[in-house]
Amino acid sequence: MFYSIYTFLVEEAFFYVFSFFCIAIIFRLAYFTLHSLQNDPIVLKFFNLKYALRSLINWTIPFKARNMRLNPITFFVSYLFHICIILVPIFYSGHIFILEEYIDLPFEPPMLPDILSDVLTFLALVSGIFLLLRRIIYPPARYVSSSKDFGLLLLVLIPFLTGFLAVRGIGGDFLLFLHVLSAELLLLILPFTRIMHMFLGLFSRSYTGSEFGAIRHAKDW
Amino acid sequence: MKRELAQDIGLREGIKRIDRGKIKKAIDLLFTKKAETRLKLYTSTCIHCGLCAEACHFYMSHKDPSYMPIAKVQNTIWKLLKEGANVNNQDLALIAQIAYTECNLCRRCSMYCPFGIDIAYQMAMVRRFCHLIGVTPQYIQDTAHSHAATMNQMWVKEDEWIDSVQWQEEEAREELPYLRIPLEKYEADVFYSVIGPEPKFRSQLIYQAAVIMNVAGVNWTMPATPGWDNSDMAMYVGDYELMGRLKKIHFETALRLKCKKIVMGECGHAFRSVYDTGTRWLGWKEPPLPIIHAVQFYYELFKAGKIKVGKTYPKKVTFHDPCNIVRGRGLQEMARTVVKAFCPDFVEMHPNREHNYCCSAGGGVINCGPPYKKTRVKGNKVKAEQLKRTEAEVVIAPCHNCHGGLEDIIHHYGLNMEIKFLGDIIYECMDKSTHPEE
Ligand code: SF4
Ligand code: SF4
């Protein structure tokens, strides 16, 4: 039983879920772009590529922004968390093997050595828990956090936890099943949650960067 | 959030006359159906991390999270999004109180949020909402009324304006007999405009500006008609229609006199309104004629050798970077060039430049009057500490609001410091012996 649901989830469902995920994200980004044409023409009129990039670059360089230097641990852990949760799902060898079973890739896909995948997954969990604790302990974060924020972070962590354990053979098929299910669920809801900050954040940073650079002649980091 | 509603008749009476239909319309217009993309984007992007907390002097002074930037959005916009037009009256008044008196729209926090989320923009939207539903603090609303009736902020009548200018001319002629304040001169290089409070309370600033202009041999003028006041409390009340009228008459007066550029006195908010907010509202990307702030103007005169150092300023000074001309226009280095030329004993305060702490008076907060004086002074302990660490005797702040705010802070925290405009220092120390026409 498990096995047939599992294959369904991995084969057909994944294809639909992933397509949905991509389309939903494109749709959401298009929505904001088109919306601004109609309701907020200032945004595109004052958008300035040079200063948008200046801002993005300066905020990507670790510890360049003053706030990063004021909160080094939080920013360090956040960087780590984001790097791990992006790299592992895409480049974990197990995922790529499954993909190769269904699609003939015309190139040799890059893969993470398994040991590195393991370490990164572990770090993702640790840093995720740190961020969770930070939400509880650091008063400003607690003040503004709602149950949704905690829920979302947990939801992101579940596929990593289940994956980490499943690779070790813990929990058997059931855990593997849970791993796939939770990951697909995450992909489904992700475009409608705050996790969209990974794309929308680029928009807002670029706009603020444009204003600061082109109009205000000031730094924004 | 623990907040008492202030003894402010504007808020207390305002909520008694509330019209639910209006509230619904305003919410639709600003926050839901017709909301601007930026507002929607910021609401969807913010990850509730609280990393903006340390940007805000209110939070840094109280260490109470309800004062951090995003908390102000949470307690205003998110509340309106959640409760819609049914939000209760008391909460509405508190929403107004937060937006008008607990945020200086200084935009420091957009430099601390990893996504550059603009809290000041959102607070300005809340103010616009409050304006649309008619719940605004009394004092600042009164200045807006004055703007609407007289086109200046301080109920100065047309003849009173001319009188004040001519009175200052007369006084200054005792010092420099050749001095003139040319009114209504056509095709001057410089159209000089000031804020309403200058003729009302700080007329020596007009005197000083006239001395600097005359010694530097600038071809300048001031208008004798409404349009002389460049200030803009309408922008801070949220009355953008009125803001548009004000900016229009200011520009049109300069254009009527066919002047080449506008030079504005040492005021920050007026500068923000003229070169940016108001210009945009009128549909211009760039102002219709060049506009520069006094700091840049003095810098240019200094570089051109038209202002010379006569004597150096003897006291130890520090420089306060006003948000609207530094974070708002990058004039920090120009200001420092002039300050350092006149004041050899100069120390930086930390943090400085774009990262300087706000004076807590700007954004119209000081204009909300006595009911909120405590809010802004207690909410800026961190500024007092920052000033104290410099051990300077004088702080130079080229902005009217900063002056008012720093004065109260220095007094409340018992710091032994004087506050000066950049023009004060230049006037006092420049070489006035050269008569340019000789
Ligand atoms: S006062 Fe300045 S730092 Fe504080 S919330 Fe307002 S804009 Fe942000
Ligand atoms: S505004 Fe920015 S810094 Fe503040 S909570 Fe939201 S995402 Fe974090």
What is the spatial order of strands in the main beta sheet of chain B? 2-1-3-4
Q: Could you give a short account of the major beta sheet of chain B?
A: 4 strands, parallel
Largest sheet of chain A: none
Name the quaternary structure. heterodimer
Provide the number of structural domains of chain B.
Answer: 3
Discrete helix count of chain A:
11
What's the helix-strand series of chain A?
HHHHHHHHHHH
CA-to-CA gap between the ends of chain A? 55 Å
Query: What portion of residues of chain A belong to β-strands?
Result: under 5%
Series of secondary-structure elements of chain B, N-terminal to C-terminal: HHHHHHHHHEHHEHHEHEHEHEHHEHEH
- The CATH class assignment of chain A is Mainly Alpha
How would you summarize the topology of this molecule?
The complex is a heterodimer of chains A (221) and B (438).
Chain A: H1 2-39, H2 41-45, H3 49-60, H4 66-70, H5 72-91, H6 93-102, H7 114-137, H8 139-144, H9 147-167, H10 172-189, H11 197-215
Helix pairs in contact in A: 1-10, 3-11, 5-7, 7-9, 9-10
Chain B: H1 9-14, H2 20-30, H3 37-45, H4 57-62, H5 69-83, H6 89-101, H7 119-133, H8 138-150, H9 158-175, E1 190-193, H10 197-200, H11 204-216, E2 220-221, H12 233-237, H13 240-256, E3 261-264, H14 268-281, E4 291-293, H15 294-303, E5 317-319, H16 332-342, E6 346-347, H17 373-378, H18 381-390, E7 394-396, H19 400-412, E8 418-420, H20 422-429
Parallel strand pairs in B: 1-2, 1-3, 3-4, 5-6, 5-7, 7-8
Helix pairs in contact in B: 2-7, 5-7, 6-7, 9-11, 11-20, 13-14, 15-16, 16-20
The complex binds iron/sulfur cluster (SF4) (2 copies).
One iron/sulfur cluster binds next to helix 5 and helix 7 of chain B.
